[in-house]
UniProtKB/TrEMBL annotation:
Its main location: nucleus. Keywords: DNA-binding, Nucleus, Transcription, Transcription regulation. This is WRKY domain-containing protein. It is found in: Nucleus. The keyword Transferase does not apply.
Amino acid sequence: MSSTSFTDLLASSGVDCYEQNEDFLGGFYPERTGSGLPKFKTAQPPPLPISQASHGFSFSDLLDSPLLLSSSHSLISPTTGAFPYQCFNGTNNHSDFPWQLQTQPQQPNASSALQETYAVQDLQKKQEDPVHREFGSDRQVKVPSYMVVSRNSNDGYGWKKYGQKQVKKSENPRSYFKCTYPNCVSKKIVETASDGQITEIIYKGSHNHPKPEFTKRPSGSRRMFNTSSVVSETHEQSENSSISFEYSDLEQKSFKSEYGEVEEEEEQLEIKRLKREGE
DNA sequence: AAGCTTTGACCTATA
DNA sequence: TTATAGGTCAAAGCT
């Protein structure tokens, strides 16, 4: 993350509000190329005013940033690094928005410095569970990976897991997913911590199809989540956010109602499932 | 029975 | 050329 600025991070995050509310960054937003071709790891972030100074992303950088200082929307906790998505507050109450963006700690000389990787963490879980407040907790929760993934990273698309691997770059295993839509080359890599939290989601390639309808829940993808928290590796991905990541108000409302109805039932199923595993 | 995840082996890119 | 790491394949097992 050494060369990735906060604005890179925001711009690439696919967070809807940055497209809808460009004033958030003082009018700055990533230039759109329109190439449509997926870029993989070679993609570099565009030159940005505040991206050239530091090797790492620090909160002092944040605080020094005129972009952030001028923004009344974002308040970053110097102690937790929590980044509340208050930009949503205009139309919806997202105080229960469970995600947190963080930069990954990285070696200063890491060769992957130019690679854009962003961490997505379950803030709510941390806030509710004291164990999560302890850095480096070795708490182990035996939860099948597919369960964790579908719970936290469902973006409305169908994903098929085709591999999992422990990579050296991170202590957490990576799960590899392909879009199940025919001829769609979109993939995503989900990094999951030992306690079940998703620590990183990387999107590769773009969907060449619209998002499937919500009316019927896809098997294996049991929850519909607002994907505003999901980050993409390529700028093309955020460019395609009109297809991939934007939810209309109507969709959000229907999502909420469906989610509310479904949640309890799903919780029960999961509890039963975990019980069975424990036996 | 179908569709899914798991996981070790294999492939490929890079230093 | 070789070693290493990341990504993918595919058979097996599970739900």
